[in-house]
Design brief:
Blueprint lengths: L2 E2 L3 E5 L2 E9 L2 E6 L3 H4 L6 E2 L2 E2 L7 E2 L3 E7 L2 E6 L4 H11 L6 E4 L4 E7 L3 H6 L16 E6 L2 E9 L3 E7 L3 H13 L3
Antiparallel strand pairs: 1-3, 2-3, 3-11, 4-9, 4-10, 5-6, 7-8, 8-9, 11-14, 12-13, 13-14
């Protein structure tokens, strides 16, 4: 289980928004520019699991896969060492034309949850966070609070993980606290 920093709860009239830093998450990016992968014509299979080809789709499990766009996936896990996870995935890569990059040192992860979190996220992003539009198992690469973020909806009641460049971590954490406090 990933190490979690102390949780910050921000009261909102009838709800609480919880913001937690998640440590120990491994992140790899798998990318291809080959037409057979970017068009969805040829599936990419890793560890006997077909990766999602539709942007916004996810594949759950101990090693989760988020499809960020055609031929572009974020692979996240907390079960293996970064080098071990990379070696495990590289052994399964079907053929040349796929590039795997370890993003672990460059990405920070925030877990946000609570009954008001969809409203809070909507304050800094143009995505529709209504459960019909952004249900469990959905992800998106977007801008939140003017910075690049990957957002994944993990469960209901609403619980999201935000993957942010490490240099923006403190800014986004403070922005979330301010946005949640402004919901009062």
């Amino acid at each position: 289980m990933p190490e979690r920093a102390q949780m910050r709860a921000v009261p909102n009239k009838t709800a609480v928004v919880q913001i937690t830093a998640v440590h120990g998450r491994r992140s790899l990016r798998l990318k291809s520019w080959l037409p057979e992968y970017t068009s969805g014509g040829k599936p990419v299979v890793l560890a006997a699991r077909e990766l999602p080809s539709r942007a916004g789709a996810t594949l759950s499990g101990p090693v989760r896969v988020l499809c960020l766009g055609p031929g572009d996936w974020l692979i996240v896990s907390h079960e293996r060492e970064p080098s071990g996870l990379r070696e495990h995935i590289e052994r399964d890569l079907p053929q040349p034309g796929l590039v795997l990059v370890d993003l672990t040192p460059g990405l920070a992860v925030l877990e946000v949850q609570g009954s008001a979190i969809r409203e809070v996220l909507s304050k800094g992003c143009g995505l529709d966070f209504h459960p019909r539009s952004f249900p469990t198992g959905r992800c998106a690469r977007t801008r939140l609070a003017q910075i690049p973020v990957v957002i994944e909806c993990l469960s209901e009641p609403p619980r999201f993980e935000l993957y942010v460049p490490r240099s923006y971590f403190h800014y986004l954490h403070a922005w979330l606290i301010d946005a949640a406090a402004g919901s009062v």
